[in-house]
Amino acid sequence: MTVEQREATIKSRQSRCDICVLIGDMTPVMLCQDHDKATGQNRGMLCSRHNLGLGHFNHSPNELLAAVEYMKQYCQLQLVSAGGR
Ligand SMILES: [Zn+2]
Measured in angstroms, how far is the CA atom of residue 21 from the centroid of ligand 1? Predict the structure, then answer.
């Protein structure tokens, strides 16, 4: 991707991170080009927080899904204990 293509992509996305948009955060941010480290192929445009977050999970959907399951269990425990008061 050339510098011009990258700038056009950021402008067309109105500086919004692909993951932030999925969770409803439409705040414009500085974007990083996410890419597949194995193939070098470009993926989407992410804010630094989400780009770093994917890196902490080794860009592994399985690790991310395991974290989601973990958090769901934890949140359900919080709801049960809060309801028991
Ligand atoms: Zn984001």
Answer: 7
